[in-house]
Fold:
Amino acid sequence: MDFSKWVLCNSFYELDSYSCELMPNILPIGPLLASNHLGHYAANFWPHDSTCISWLDQQPARSVIYVAFGSYAILTQRQFNELALGFELVVRPFLWVVRSEGSAAEYPDGFIERVADHGKIVS
Structure:
């Protein structure tokens, strides 16, 4: 794990204490549960977005914050806004994969425009 300062995992220390001690830069932030999701998701193959590679190639090495919760976590609008505004405040390059189905979250007003110079959002 020499590529980043921290590795976030969807777990908690009491469950994975051995792993947390084995890797000092692991940060358990879970569990993030999809308990408020009422439907059933079968396998989902999103279309490939090749613009990410060219965007990443333009960023300084080891500078990009990558966030993708997959289909496991469903964020409330408030959580979604907090995450978005955090990206805006940190002013570092970020690649955020936002699920397109099962989420009705909307970006804060003007967010896309304000982070256009340092953020890449894929859905």
